[in-house]
Amino acid sequence: MSLTTDTPPVAEAGRKRLKNYNLQRGSKTGFSVLGAFIFGSIFVAAGVSIVLIGTGVIPVDPSRVNAPYWIITICGGVFAGAGLMVWGMAATQQRAERHRRDAMKRYAGSEAHADYAWNPSGYTPPRWRRAFQSLLGAGFFTVFLSIFNWWAWRVPDSPLLVKIVVVLFDLILVLVWWKTALAFGRCAKFGGSRLVYQRFPYRLDEPLAVRWMPPHGITRADKGSFTFRCVEEYYEERGQGKDRSRWLVHDELSAEVQSFDTPHDFPPGRAVELRFTLPPDARRTQLLADRPVYWELHVTLSMAGLDFEEWYLVPVY
Questions:
Q1: CA 29 to chain centroid
Q2: How far apart are CA 194 and CA 312, in angstroms?
Q3: Coil, helix or strand for 268?
Q4: Cα separations (Å) of 174 from 56, 169, 178, 225, 301?
Q5: pLDDT tens for the chain, residues 1 to 317
Q6: Distance between CA atoms of residues 154 and 133, nearest Å
Q7: Dihedral sign, CA of 99, 100, 106, 110?
């Protein structure tokens, strides 16, 4: 079925920072695979050593220990966990590079296949994987904050400023767990959805038509939007000197929004036909670039109970 919108499609031009967006599509870590492995190994080695001290495997002078052994063990676990995450990022980067080499041999001349492991028929988002990633992040954050909660509430004469900061971060932790619960709730309420490509890959100089297959659990939405956007992903450095850090950010380069503000039915098993027009200065997909660029369809639907929200990659080359 074709989507009937209440207003004409709205084209959004110009770079715009996407907020509350934590989907990492690129595989670059800012290091080589070997460099990332070595960097992660430093954290893993330090973390394991601290855990062994906290569990008593490596004996130390008790007079030099200023915290309970369980706190020391948790500190070591946090360090080791950070190193394991860097190892995971290095493994992802290695798989992407290996895929590119293999695809260049298997699909000679195919830029799309060499850039990403596309399924030419369509894209199915990994709904449960993101929920479990959210659970892992919430758990890691909880363990990390337990150290500072001990400092704030169990150490005598703990500074008032420390207690205020810890309370603020504890409130953030509650929000993180709330969002994790919502992620699992949506996975349980909505089944798998899929975006079907009308051709593969799409070209920059032609209209783009796709077919969205809604998940079960959606029969009627009060309002919603379908946003087809181009996104650039890169790391941004903040601070100076020793306080300098790198943050993953996403900028929207262009977008077209089709929305409806009156109730709309979604009959089970019926696909939604969508058609978008790319801007004249549209950029091609480059997921293996140092600053990845990609196109996605962002679907949001408001309804009774939990709302639906999902993202789908689109191959534009």
A1: 14
A2: 8
A3: coil
A4: 33, 9, 6, 29, 25
A5: 656 565 667 777 789 999 988 888 987 776 788 888 999 999 999 999 999 999 989 988 887 888 889 999 999 999 999 999 999 989 988 888 887 778 777 777 788 988 998 999 999 999 899 899 999 999 999 999 999 999 999 998 889 999 999 999 999 999 999 999 999 999 999 989 999 999 999 999 999 999 999 998 898 999 999 999 999 999 888 777 777 777 889 999 999 999 999 999 998 888 999 999 999 999 999 998 889 999 999 999 999 889 999 999 999 99
A6: 31
A7: positive
- CB count in 10 Å sphere of residue 313: 19
Measuring CA to CA, which residue among 9, 27, 3 is closest to residue 229? 9
3-state class (DSSP) for residue 198: coil
Q: Which two tokens stand for residue 88?
A: 């995971």
Phi, psi of 99 (to 5 degrees): -60, -40
Q: What single letter denotes the amino acid at residue 229?
A: R
Distance CA 193, CA 312 (A): 10
CA 55/CA 71 separation, integer angstroms:
10
Rounded CA separation 119/99 (Å):
14
Phi, psi of 41 (to 5 degrees): -65, -35
What is the rounded CA–CA span in Å between residue 291 and residue 287? Answer: 8
The residue whose two tokens read 């959210």 is 134
Q: Tell me phi and psi for residue 314, to 5 degrees.
A: -125, 130
